[in-house]
């Protein structure tokens, strides 16, 4: 049986796959940051949703990258998880 990590490594050798994967880096970073904030706060999606006065499904979509959140939504998420939102611009 082939492991996902092995497939990913093989596909990363293909320039088109690598370019598409690299283009998603910022979205992956945002999703990872959201999950990290929630898990470090020892909260469930339902608890974060309750604190934000929204639904668990909304939090799941937010954390999965299926929606692009507004700055206001990110601020509310940060407040719900006891963190502070920090946005920065990095030269390319």
Give a verbal description of the structure.
- It is built from 6 helices and no strands.
- With 92 residues, the chain is mainly alpha-helical.
- The chain has a single domain, classed as 434 Repressor (Amino-terminal Domain) (Orthogonal Bundle), CATH 1.10.260.40.
- The longest helix has 16 residues.
- It is globular and about 45 Å long.
Reconstruct the topology from this structure:
Layout: H1 4-11, H2 15-23, H3 25-40, H4 45-52, H5 56-64, H6 71-80
Helix pairs in contact: 4-5, 4-6
Short description:
This protein is mainly α. The chain is built from six helices and no strands.
User: Kindly state the mean pLDDT as a whole number?
Assistant: 93
Uncertain segments: none
* Name of the CATH first level: Mainly Alpha
Domains (count): 1
The appropriate CATH architecture is: Orthogonal Bundle
The largest pleated sheet is described as: none
Structural class: mainly alpha
Q: Tally the helices: what do you get?
A: 6
Number of DSSP strand runs: 0
Proportion of residues in helical segments: 55-70%
By CATH, the topology is: 434 Repressor (Amino-terminal Domain)
Query: Whole-number radius of gyration?
Result: 16 Å
Give the N-terminus to C-terminus distance in angstroms: 39 Å
The share of residues in extended strands comes to under 5%
Shape: globular
| String of helices and strands | HHHHHH
CATH homologous superfamily designation: lambda repressor-like DNA-binding domains
């Amino acid at each position: 049986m082939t492991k996902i990590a092995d497939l990913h490594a093989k596909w990363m050798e293909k320039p088109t796959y690598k370019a598409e994967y690299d283009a998603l880096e910022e979205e992956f970073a945002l999703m990872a940051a959201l999950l990290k904030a929630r898990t470090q706060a020892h909260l469930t999606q339902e608890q974060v949703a309750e604190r934000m006065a929204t639904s668990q499904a909304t939090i799941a979509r937010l954390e999965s990258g299926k929606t692009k959140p507004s700055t206001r939504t990110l601020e509310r998420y940060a407040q719900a998880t006891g963190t502070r939102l920090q946005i920065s611009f990095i030269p390319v």
